[in-house]
Each structure stands twice: as structure tokens, then as C-alpha cells.
Amino acid sequence: MTSALLSVENAVVDLPTPRGNLRAVDHVDLAVGAGRTLGIVGESGCGKTMLSRAVLQLLPKKAKLSGRVMFDGQDLTKLSAEKLRKLRGRSLAVVFQDPMTSLNPVLTIGTQLIETIQEHLELDLAQARQRSIELLAAVGIPAPEQRLAQYPHQLSGGMRQRVAIAVALSCEPQLLIADEPTTALDVTIQAQILDLLAREQQRRHMAMIIITHDLGVVAGRTDEVAVMYAGRVVERAPTPALFKQMRMPYTEALLAALPKLDVAPHTPLPAISGRPPDPTRPLKGCSFSPRCRYSAERCASEKPQLCSAETPEHLYACFHPIAARVGA
Amino acid sequence: MMLQAAPNPLMKVENLVVEYSVGGKTIHAVSDVSLEIARGETLGLVGESGCGKSTLGRAVLQLRQAVSGKVLFDGHDLTTLKGEALRQMRRRVQLIFQDPIASLNPRRRIGDIVAEPLVIAGVKDPDERRRRVAEVLSAVGLDPTLVSGRLPHEFSGGQCQRICIARSLVLNPEFVICDEPVSALDVSIRAQILNLLEEMKARYGLTLLFIAHDLAVVKAVSDRVAVMYLGRLCEVGPSEQLFARPAHPYTALLIEAIPVPDPDVRPTQSVPVGEPPSPIAPPSGCRFRTRCPRADARCASEVPELRLVATGQFAACHHPLI
């Protein structure tokens, strides 16, 4: 994909720990184009957040990144700190899970918005203030003028996340990374925030990456999904194709393990046995094989590479993929 | 108003009111809630954060003092019990918390953590304690010989929750309150723990109050579900029926807001429902009226009582959907 706005090529992130090297991200390739939304799904510790930090060049100091992160024609891994600082906030924006930790508790909402805007755009104070009010209104905050003088603790969790989104959108970024943007929020607020993100993404023709543990969140709101397990992308496909036919047993098991509203109470859930492998003790074969019901000898000795199924867009890393449904 | 679940409920909460005082202001955490839980039943309690569901759970256990109302457990009013009498009763009622790692003392060994309730209950024979700890650890799927001597940090979140469940069951309780027992766990682990809770319920003949914010999780384990909003109950009914035909607009909103893992189900554009008001100054009348599409003048002036809308299903709404 040459037209992609962001492409991550062969990214590897290693973290030294007292227990030995931890490979948080293991040879990941991903791409997202302008106006498109990519969902990255996985459970805690699968490397999805480390991957997003590699894109933002915000990895912990000790972490070692190899591979390329191409954004708008330049390799972010080769940029100076100063150039990166200009890029982040301006073209590359991020919304984190907990808005309380991403907003500064001792500065007013107005100060935080105006500061970001003036840092990156050539606007005077009055213009920046006007823009802040427009942004707060755009993200659905009532009485935006009064809000400028308020502090984050005076707002509810949902309102704080709206402010964080307003800050992220303030300089018209080309790419927005939303890392578990609704995990800390209640379900009725979650729907509102996801709608807001989708609306702004469309309106601004941004590229967006939604990182989540919830397959339900990506199903209706992304163009493409990458499923991660133990640092690797194990399945990647256009969203409709993925949900129509999951090929990787992990993806299927993850969906099956979700409690569903259309299932009668007290029906035993098809749980995934065991737990993810210790990331400091990588397995020789497929990382999911100890928990996989299709696992065979080869799975324990050899690592399956991502390969494509019927269509070149649908990739999976499995020796025993789930067979295509007849007539599907 | 009666919510008859069974002729002889194990747990009966009557007109319970719990309030906190914060900086001179009163938080109306639980306002006039009545509930019944039959022996052997699982009642799910759902609601968003701050709705008072955890406070209700704690008030049932007498970990939080009620302003008024009764908590009748097997016919005894727990709110009037004190000292030894309350301690005796508490052995029959246990609690499992949301964060399994935080609820285990990091410096104590698993065997001692699980044996602690026995020590407090006065089981003096160490062999007897060991035997019961081993039995309950095996029941939750852990090998007693491997885990007893280890410390909590050596275990994952899912395993810690198994340990917490073992600790809550070691005294053979009759009633267990599970407060968001799986919300800190990953999807693949969550299913294991939900299945384990169901197994334990059957094995030990438990009655459960299952508190959670996730409707699908609640439905998976509950016979009946109660929906709470800003300190009041909106709706109570049999799980299947309540999810198929919600009567209260808030229940309907909650169901609609769940993201469905199916791309063909386009997310419904969320209605502009705003956010819950503060429990310090809850709206007059129906507390949900400020976000409700059906609200009218009556909803502002008159508190809706829970009343029967279908077999076994009660809703507190002036304009129910059924």
C-alpha cells in the first residue's frame, strides 16, 4: 500500500526487564490511509499499546524499536526530537483511555486548549480562544464558553474525554490514535463518544486507529481490523470480511468467549482455557497453540507467518485456519 | 409495594436508604430500594458508575450503615444486629470484589489468605483448616500443593480472582455478593471466571447478588435482573424477558448502547441523552427524566412507583414501553 498515510513496517519493540528481554511487539506490519479507520484488537499485554507508542515515538526510554514507521512520507524513527514534537499534536494526535491522566489537573480547560492551538497554529489569543469554543461545541460540550474557565476535576468522565478529544482535534491532525478511548466510561457515554469520534473522523477525513479489547467496538466502526496476540498481528482483514469469516482460531475464540445478549442465562460460555504466554519466555511455535483447540504438532515447533486467504486483504497466521464456510 | 420473588426469600431488602455526607452535602446513594432474592437464585444488579449499586451491596452486608430500611437475611434484620450476633450472621454472607489483586494481601501466602476466614470463625485445628483450604482451592481449579505456599504477585488477575472466590467460599456461605467480579479481567479470562461462579453456585448451593455494569455479563449468570439509576430501581424482572422487552426507557437505552460484535448491525446513532445528573441533587420525580425521551410534567412532579408491567416484571415509570 503506497498510498497509506501511516505504514508500520516490520516493527519490533524490545523491553529489557529483570526477567530478561520482553518482546512487546514482534514484527508487525500495518497501514492506514487517509479517511480510513483501523481497529487494533487484543487483550491486555498483547502489545497493542506499545505498538501505538512506537507509532507516536513515545516508547519508554529503555525500549528498543527496530523497523520503520512511515508517516506522510517520512520515517518517524529517524526524526529529531524537535521535529517529532512539532509533528505530535499537529499532525499526529492521540486520545488515551483515562482523560484524567491526559489532562493537566492544575490548568483550566481553556488554557490547555489554547496552549495546544497556539503551539502549533499561528493564531493570536482571541482567535485561539474562539477556536477552542468552537471545538468544545463540536465535541458536544454544553455552554463551551463557561467551560474554558473550569478545571478537569469539575467535569464528569465523559465530559473530560470530550475535552481530551477536542484537544486532540484542535490542530486538524491527519492521524488520530484513540487508545481504549471509552474503556473508562459507562456504556451510554461510550456510545456517544464513539459516535463523536466517527463523526469527526468523517468530517475531517482523518485517518484513525482505534485500539480496544472489545470486538464489539470495532465491528461497527472500523474499515479494517488487526487482531494482536502476544505481540504479533495474528489476523488482519477488512472488518466485514473478518466478522463474516474468522480464520484465526484466536479471533474466533475471543468472539465466542464474549457474553451475548441473545443467549439464554446460565449457558456456559465457551471460555479460552489457560492464559497468554509469558512475554519474556517466547514460544518457539505459535503463541496461541497451548490454548488452541486446533493445535497440532507443527504449531508447537514452527511459527506461522501471516499469509492470505481467498482475498489478498485477509491475512492470518495459522497452520490450521478455520475452514471457509460452504456458501459463505 | 411488594416484589414477591418467592414465598420465603433468603434476602429481603425493604425500603433501604443510604446517604453519605460529603463536604456538608448529602449524596443520595440508595433511595428507598426494595428487593427480594429467593434461595438458590442469582439476582443481577446493573447500572452505570455512581448509580449506587455497590453501595447497595455494601449496605446489605452492613459495611455501610443505612439511614433507614431493613435488610432481612433468612428472617433476621441485619440492620439491628450488633457485635457477635452480626459476626455470626456475616459468616453466611460473603463478598467478592472487582479488583482481585488489590483484595489480596501481597505479603501473605495463598494458603494463609484462604484460611483466614476459618481462623476468624474460630476453627482451631490446623489440619481441619488445611483440609478445608485444599478442598476449596481444588474446587476453584487451583492445585493446593502448588499454590498454598506462594504469594499473590506470582499469580495473574484471573488466578487471583479464583483465590478470592476460594476465600469467600471457605466458610460455606449461603449468600455471596459479587461486586463487578469480572470487569477487571480480559475477555478470555472473564468467561472462565463466569463459568466458575456458575459451577460454584451449583456445587455449594449459593444464592448470588451479582453486581455489574455490563448487561451481557449480567444476563449470562442471572435469573432475574434489577436495573438501578441514580440510587433508585428502575426495573426488575426475569432476565430473558427484561432484555427482550424492557419496560423502562433507561433499560432500553442501556441495551441499545451495547456495541454489538457484528458489522452488519450498524451502531444506532446514539440519542442525545446527555449524562447522569449528580446524586447530590437528583432530579425531582423520576430521576431519569432529564435524559428520557418520554418525560413530561408528571415525571417531574411525581416519583414513579415500581409496578407490575408483565409477569414478574416491574417498572418504575409513568410511561413504560410495555
UniProtKB/TrEMBL annotation, chain A:
Keyword set, alphabetical order: ATP-binding, Cell membrane, Membrane, Nucleotide-binding, Transport
Gene Ontology MF annotations: ATP binding; ATP hydrolysis activity
Membrane topology value: Peripheral membrane protein
CDD domains: ABC_NikE_OppD_transporters (cd03257)
Boundaries of every ABC transporter domain copy: 6-255
Highest taxon of the lineage: Bacteria
GO biological process: peptide transport; transmembrane transport
TM annotation in the entry: none
GO cellular component, one term: plasma membrane
Stored InterPro entries: AAA+_ATPase, ABC_Ni/Peptide_Import, ABC_transporter-like_ATP-bd, ABC_transporter-like_CS, Oligopep_ABC_C, P-loop_NTPase
Location of this chain's protein in the cell: Cell inner membrane
PANTHER family reported in the protein's UniProt record: DIPEPTIDE TRANSPORT ATP-BINDING PROTEIN DPPD (PTHR43297:SF2), OLIGOPEPTIDE TRANSPORT ATP-BINDING PROTEIN APPD (PTHR43297)
Function: Involved in beta-(1-->2)glucan export. Transmembrane domains (TMD) form a pore in the inner membrane and the ATP-binding domain (NBD) is responsible for energy generation.
Family statement drawn from the similarity comment of this UniProt entry: Belongs to the ABC transporter superfamily.
Protein name according to UniProt: Peptide/nickel transport system ATP-binding protein
From TrEMBL, chain B:
SUPFAM superfamilies per record: P-loop containing nucleoside triphosphate hydrolases (SSF52540)
Membrane topology term: Peripheral membrane protein
InterPro entries with a match to the protein in the record: AAA+_ATPase, ABC_transp_ATP-bind, ABC_transporter-like_ATP-bd, ABC_transporter-like_CS, Oligopep_ABC_C, P-loop_NTPase
Keyword Nucleotide-binding included in the entry's annotation: yes
GO biological process, one term: transmembrane transport
Function in brief: Involved in beta-(1-->2)glucan export. Transmembrane domains (TMD) form a pore in the inner membrane and the ATP-binding domain (NBD) is responsible for energy generation.
Annotated protein name in UniProt: Oligopeptide/dipeptide ABC transporter ATP-binding protein
